[in-house]
Amino acid sequence: MAKAFFRLQKFLRRTQFLLFFLTAAYLMAGSLLLLQRTRLVIQQGSRGTAANQALPVPNGMVGVGIVDPRTLQNPRPAPRLLVGMDALQEPALDQQHSPRWLVSRNSELRQLRRRWFHRFISDQEPMQTAGFKAMKNTAEHKGTYVGCFSDDSRERTLKGAVFYDLRKMTVSHCQEACAERAYTYAGLAYGAECYCGNKLPAAASKPEECNSECKGEKGSVCGGVNRLSVYRVEELRAGARRRRNVIYRGCFRAPENLTDTFPASLTQPNLTVEMCSEFCSKKEFPLAVIRGRECYCGYPTGRFSLHDGADGLLCSGTHNASGAAEGKYCLVYQTPVQDTRCTDRKFLTTKSKVFVALSSFPGAGNTWARHLIEHATGYYTGSYYFDGALYNKGFKGEKDHWRSRRTICVKTHESGKTEIEMFDSAILLIRNPYKSLMAEFNRKYAGHLGYATDRNWKSKEWPDFVNSYASWWASHVLDWLKYGKRLLIIHYEDLKQSLIPKLKEMVEFLNMTVTEDRLLCVENNRDGNFKRSGAKQKDFEPFTQEMKDLINRYILTVDEALRGRNFTGLPREYVPR
User: Fold this and answer.
1) Assigned architecture for domain 356-531+542-564
2) Are the CB atoms for 560 and 570 separated by under 8 Å?
3) Which residues contact 263 (CB under 8 A, 6 or more apart)?
């Protein structure tokens, strides 16, 4: 018995030593790995790479904005992870024959969300000494530093245009943006927000209260929490004037009483378009109206909606004298100033009782529809995913959890019974599959505003993309028709053609009421920040006959399903070509 006990004791001692040795080796290996990663991060920092670049970035969006790991749940092609995280492999394109190819990675996503959240929160912590650097850094910028001013989301200090860039905001970027739009002042807040305007309050805040570092410019101050770092950019406007666009809106019948219709006016001999536009820009009005020697400034309203244009010949004499038709007609120009009557947005004050989806196939105009809904209702829209580029451009609902019910509706490209039935109702946005496929292919390879190269279109990737995504276009609509509880069908082409009537339908479906002036403001700002500049014409037909035959079969199937559910069929332009 004693001999057996002695052997056991000897074995345990050896085991104890072995465990100690393995623990020490484990700790040493971990320390070496940590030192190696730390050195890698320091090397990145020395090149000027932002800390938040160690995050997932989809193809075509590197350098655009922070991307939350929820992007990995996006049924679009999966992103890659940059330095500091293990790469998630992108599924082969030819395996993506439906939106169900996406594999769940719940534990990884939770950890990535946690890392992103802590990184984002730490970036928001104000610098203690940044406020005192404000005057030192202003010499490096083109504008003149005015001071630190208080700002309130309910009553903005600068009431003009608004821009966001959570990743690359700089003082110069904000100054140039405001100067190009004919504003006198540029103000920065929270390190990433830019506000423009022509008027400032009399009293300023303490300089040290502006203490947030600019997201894209280390050592420079971009306001603070409810504080604006304000610059005068008037001296920049002379150079920016060459880049500013004054857009001719057309000839219109003048309202009966122009003084009552337009809040500001000017009478000037030898009046020019530039003089009238400059005057209205300083008054912060988006419209400049000319009738003879008279200049009027204002907004599109019910009295003057700009819906019924007149023959340009009727205005041929209005600029030189009292008007060819006795002053009954006037010339209308769009100034560089943004119509801000509908730009204020916020989260719902109480949780929504109805969970509404804004559903579409990728490339069908979901982002544009969100822009219209947000500006019409005054409330943010949410998203099932996270797109840092959209968040940077003012879609603050991107960062809110999609189940929070603090947004008016939630963007989704999902289909399938489970994903659809969790919503109480949905606006289903449908676009011509030919246009949708091309738009999504452009986004995949060149971001929200770019175009894929001819090399992309002529590669094997394009036919593979069409073969897998065309069926998804059809299955997406069919699934929502089958499982959706309460649907409003909106065709992208109808929304584009008849904006206000279709937008009214969407707003009423969301159980909201809006004024006519607000809808006219939305129409005046209809394009938003994510409209590709022009249609890049290709010198070849991207769709082969085989692709057309495939897509046309899906078009007929979807059209039949819509009519079978007593909805309006697809627009005639969808008909097989």
Assistant:
1) 3-Layer(aba) Sandwich (3.40)
2) no
3) 283, 285, 297, 298
